[in-house]
Amino acid sequence: MDQFQNKSWISWISGHLPLLLILLLAAVLRVHDLDGTSLWYDEAVSWDQSRGSFANLLSAVATDNYPPLHNIVLWITMPVLGDSETALRLPSALLGVAAVWLTYLVGRRLGGREVGLLAAALLALSPFHIWYSTEARMYALLATCGLGFLLCVVEAFRRPSLSWLIGVAVMGALFLYSHIYALLGFAAVGLTAAACPVAELARGKSLRSSAPFRICLAMGVSCLAFLPWLVILLERARSVAETGFWIAYPNWPFLKHTAFSVSGSLVLFGLLVALALFGVLRIGKPVNGQRNAKCSVLLVCLAYTAGPPVLAYLYSVTVQPILFDRYLIAAWPGLLLLASLGAHRLMPVVAPLALTGLAIYLSFPELKFTLTEKVRPEWRLIAQDYEEKRASQDGLVLYKGFAAPALTYYLREPGAFKTAEDVTELQGLGEHERWLLVVHSNEAETAAAIEAFQAEGSQPASRRFGWGASGLSLLEKPLSN
Fold first, then answer.
1. CB-based burial label for 58 (10 Å; 0-12, 13-18, 19+)
2. 284 Cβ contact partners less than 8 Å away, ≥ 6 residues apart
3. Which of 358, 360, 334 is nearest to 107 (CA)?
4. How far apart (Å, rounded) are the C-alpha atoms in residues 398 and 160?
5. Domain residue ranges in the chain
6. Contacts of 153 (CB under 8 A, 6+ apart)
7. pLDDT tens for residues 271-295?
């Protein structure tokens, strides 16, 4: 009996060895050196919103532009793991590995085991996905919940059992609560699924046994579950529309930059799109005048992939820019799945191997940069610089106050600094406020802040990497004679 069990275990390991190696590689690339960079503004905001009571968490997130699921994850894990940089980022890293596994599962259902392994390997090595799997924000969660939702929809098309329909409802709700961009992918899948029962009705078929109709009902349950937060987001959207948003208009250079950021290589991006289109166009002829479940599944995957970028682009050029690279992280595995399917249909052995080799070759410079050189604003270092240089009675002023959570995280001392939103607030400060930290400001704003602080001509006591012309610039006010 023991010998039989050992043989079964060995057989299982050998059968799943390629997937296990891919998951191990994905884990190493994502878990290694999680504290290699400082928390940046948004990560610190997630920490700040999630460290109080659950009611305070919901109240804080309700004033922001996204749903609360990632904050809830941090609220659950922080009492167990702590709130170090590694602890805050670990959930995202694990979710990133889970996304690789889910990609394999979806790919296996789209085109077989080889398609799943190829798509999983491409995602495991993706610099874009690795980077956002090492960030204490909701992007890895968005990709993982999206893939879980897609998997349930695919399975429900193939065999619409109650368990998979419940999966569609639950994963659809989790997907929607992960990020506002989930609405775009969810809507695209919903419209595609809804087109199927409409076509069946046109042919005189009953909806009672229709898998797409049942899927639409399950997605309706997801919508009802998300409705309370949707009301909050609509109110926030009105506020954002009135005050403007920081995302640039999606002109051609912006689109090229987005494609490179997501794929790590414009050549690779073009190759993936071409293979994906080939895979979709080889969808096959209708069976007995009807499209089969496999055809519907492929169309759903196409909608899941193309929906977010296309809808976001159309909204950006007609209403207000909202298209941004990291928000597309849920759609990125979809492109890899379709491209893997296209490669397998083109040449089942040669094309997948060639695609893997080309992907590694073309994206390796970006992968190396991501793993060894890419940094976030260096809040940890600038806080250390201040604590080393200041006298015990000295005070610090932060200009601008939106970055307060990041400085709070690293100083960890109540009342350790004051914030200023305008240069007029830098005038007439007390004699102990001798340090000024200027962040995320252009040259004119930086010069005005230094002048108002009465530190003209002073060289920064420390300067670390940060966005804007100012970077993270720490200045000391000269002592008055």
1. middle
2. 294, 295
3. 334
4. 56
5. 2-372, 379-476
6. 168, 189, 193, 215, 300
7. 999 999 999 987 654 434 345 667 7
Round to whole Å and give the CA distance between 383 and 389: 10
165-184 pLDDT tens trace:
999 999 999 999 999 999 99
- The helix/strand/coil state of 24 is helix
Give the confidence band of 11 by pLDDT, cuts at 50, 70, 90.
Answer: low
What residues does 11 pair with on adjacent strands?
Answer: none
Please state, for a pLDDT cut of 70, what percent of the chain lies above it.
90
Distance CA 157, CA 213 (A): 10
Tell me which DSSP letter residue 137 carries.
Answer: S
Comparing CA positions, the residue from 301, 279, 70, 277 lying closest to residue 185 is: 301
For residues 408 and 288, give the distance between their C-alpha atoms in angstroms, rounded to a whole number: 65
The amino acid at residue 407 is L
Contact 185, 135 (CB under 8 A): no
Tokens of 310: 């296309």
CA 274, 275, 276, 280 dihedral sign is positive
The tens digit of pLDDT for each residue in 360-403 reads: 999 999 999 999 999 999 999 999 999 999 988 899 999 988 99
For the sheet with 395-399, list strands across it: 417-419, 395-399, 433-439, 472-476, 462-464
Contact 157, 218 (CB under 8 A): no
- In this prediction, residue 187 has a pLDDT band, given cuts at 50, 70 and 90, of very high
* Structural contact between residues 52 and 72, judged by C-beta atoms closer than 8 angstroms: no
